[in-house]
Known about the structure:
2 domains, 6 strands, about 60% helix, disordered N terminus
Amino acid sequence: xxxxxxxxxxxxxxxxxxxxxxxxxxxxxxxxxxxxxxxxxxxxxxxxxxxxxxxxxxxxxxxxxxxxxxxxxxxxxxxxxxxxxxxxxxxxxxxxxxxxxxxxxxxxxxxxxxxxxxxxxxxxxxxxxxxxxxxxxxxxxxxxxxxxxxxxxxxxxxxxxxxxxxxxxxxxxxxxxxxxxxxxxxxxxxxxxxxxxxxxxxxxxxxxxxxxxxxxxxxxxxxxxxxxxxxxxxxxxxxxxxxxxxxxxxxxxxxxxxxxxxxxxxxxxxxxxxxxxxxxxxxxxxxxxxxxxxxxxxxxxxxxxxxxxxxxxxxxxxxxxxxxxxxxxxxxxxxxxxxxxxxxxxxxxxxxxxxxxxxxxxxxxxxxxxxxxxxxxxxxxxxxxxxxxxxxxxxxx
Length: 397
């Protein structure tokens, strides 16, 4: 009989593992999609005007969203894991399913198993994201954005059409030789400067875009430059054999989208190269970025020990309380990151310790809360906080 009961209990535990894992995974994927989309839209919103005015294809918009995601996944992955675990376990506690598990004599520490499996999987994916996806996504995003700008000013399909996509510039090309990349019958009207109006005509030319400086260069041959300086009322007419007309397109790209890699977008190899000629403070920050590529994904491991006690002790505080708790914990983690970074820079602590210190603090808070996980408590977390706050106020009076 005892053998049958043990076998039944093992089957029951496996079903519980699968049930909890499935519930957390569903909420995790939903919250991850929502949080990442909200953050990405803030970035994509900066190029909405570019997309509308240039008639960008749906494919390019989707690629911009995909390439924008990895920087935000670094933070939305741990946050989604935190949110989904607290919400699911809180619901189980509110609907007395946790109480039913206790009534069956099941140790609540078993809840750590499905949560830990999911947490470890997210940690590994987070490390893959910071080491592989993130460094490449920045370059791909910028290249795709430059391609959008190039499509906006491309002259290949605009023979005999006046193009005014660049503010203050009107371009007309009679013929375009796509194979040789040459232009014939070029006319450019430049009104960027209110005090100067100039018109350039040329028999032929070549167009070239520098993807680093975003300079659009027209190398024109056999033409005339007509220039009128309004303030001085001077008119000039120049004939040229070869003339370079350059336009910087960086203004066409949103200002908050830099054309060069930022430290968090670099891979470990690039960060180590940047450290060679950096100052002592910059070297410390770059070294910190290397360890943060591991410490931030590893925050999920620390959250494992914190989410289970908080989730099962959240009684009748409402469905939205799980979201509130997860946001507060993540804000706490952010504050700890900022605080430890400042302390680390001031005291010149090892970069490894500085980056992992928030995880260590969260880990020990979780260990403290899990001590009495199997004991029944009739006071909610918010009630306990209010009670202690009222006692503190009484003492201060």
